[in-house]
Design goal:
This protein is an all-alpha fold and about 425 residues long. The protein contains 20 helices and no strands. Helix content is about 75%, strand content about 0%.
Length: about 425
């Protein structure tokens, strides 16, 4: 059983990481699905165990948020955002700063991947009209989307997992992570300015400041934002994350006066299948005892002072999140958290390091890959061209975040 689990796990994560296997046409989702079925077929897990491994709260939370975001997309909300960026950017540096603030803020509340999908075409169009290099702004979009998403329990999939597995409430989590996100965005701005200092010194032509966006459906915008507000109020009051998410989505379905099938077509069903399959794969490797063995191997390095635990766990999370991807990593190590001196705080350390790891490499996050894929014709990046900037942002923001957690521990935050 152990050998089967290791082989299935290894092949699954190779597929997830590189999205290919020799002689097979598999992507991230199909690789995870085949791995989950293999865990059952080879006797690592029973069918009942596989069903029980799937965490419905995470799936429902993600589904609800995707439906709400789909209504925001349909309403033209992101066109309003684009117009805001146009209005508030008069120089290259102002445009960079505005992109970072807007992307980081939206990613905290509307899932970072969606923000990148909606804003990448806008940035390409805008920079084409300005006749300026789109690359610093595309880098800013991807990196700030990752950084900003760390601020809330619904900002990215790994935070949703942390919210499901831990006892952190929405508001306490937000206030603990807000300084980390804010400092990270400042680091993001100045790092990109440094690397592109010769290109970010122009005043933008005033005649270009006219948005060509379609007219937004304002009633639907207001209804969608009202649904978001209901979700946030409910979460602030301590309601279940998954329930509030699907409640907000259900309210929108009732009042939006839009055909639901048009909205459901915008939902990333593949991502839900990916999560469900991944729960089964991780359950298989847990049952085989592999995760426990790895934990035992690392235990001597973690049975030290609280500050050293924070640095050690944060560093391991930064590295391994890039090897096995941040969502699978959180699923794997969630059982480790209880063994630390300050387990409640270490959930936040996990959320921060797994999220900031997304900026370390090109394949570190889905947000990066979305931006690169959507811009590959107009603004193709070389691997090192992207990684040298995003990697510097990742390391600097990770160091800042880790130091803040050490301060929290010194102040007695539990």
């Amino acid at each position: 059983m152990v050998l089967s689990a290791v082989v299935i796990f290894t092949l699954t994560y190779i597929t997830i990481s590189v999205q290919r296997l020799p002689y097979f046409r598999l992507d991230r989702t199909s690789g995870a699905l085949v791995g989950a079925v293999a865990m059952i077929a080879f006797g690592v897990l029973g069918l009942t165990e596989a069903y029980q491994a799937i965490n419905p709260d995470t799936i429902i939370l993600l589904l609800g948020m995707m439906i709400i975001v789909a209504y925001l997309q349909t309403s033209g909300f992101f066109d309003i955002v684009s117009s805001f960026i146009l209005k508030h950017a008069r120089t290259d540096s102002q445009l960079l700063f505005t992109v970072i603030i807007v992307s980081g803020t939206l990613s905290a509340f509307f899932v970072n991947d969606t923000v990148c999908v909606m804003l990448t075409p806008f940035i390409l169009t805008l920079t084409s009209r300005y006749r300026t290099d789109p690359k610093p702004y595309l880098l800013a979009l991807a990196s700030s989307a990752n950084i900003g998403s760390v601020a809330t329990l619904v900002g990215n999939p790994q935070n949703m997992l942390v919210g499901t597995f831990s006892r952190w409430g929405y508001i306490p989590f937000f206030f603990m992570m807000l300084p980390i996100a804010a400092i990270g965005l400042i680091i993001d701005f100045y790092t990109i300015k440094f690397f592109f200092r010769k290109k970010l010194n122009r005043t933008l032509s005033g005649e270009v400041f006219r948005s060509e966006s379609r007219r937004p459906d304002k009633p639907l915008v207001y209804k969608s934002l009202a649904a978001v507000l209901i979700v946030i109020i409910g979460l602030s009051a301590g309601a279940n994350l998954a329930f509030m998410s699907i409640l907000g989505a259900s309210i929108l379905i009732l009042i939006a006066n839009k055909r639901p099938d048009e909205i459901f077509a915008r939902v990333n069903w593949s991502l839900l299948l990916f999560f469900a399959s991944l729960f089964v794969v991780v359950a298989g490797i847990n049952k085989a005892g592999i995760v426990a063995n790895v934990q035992d191997f690392l235990k001597p390095y973690f049975t030290i002072s609280t500050e050293e635990q924070i640095v050690g766990f944060s560093f391991v999370s930064l590295v391994l999140s890039n090897i096995v991807s941040n969502v699978p990593y959180v699923m794997i190590v969630r059982h480790w958290v209880a063994s630390f001196n300050l387990p409640h705080l270490m959930w936040l350390v996990l959320a921060m390091s797994a999220t900031f790891a997304g900026n370390l490499t090109v394949v570190g996050s889905v947000a990066n890959m979305i931006v690169l894929e959507l811009s590959k014709i107009r603004a193709p990046f070389k691997f090192w061209e992207f990684t040298k900037v995003s990697g510097a942002i990742a390391l600097l923001s990770w160091i800042a975040g880790t130091l803040i957690f050490i301060v929290y521990a010194k102040l007695g935050v539990r």
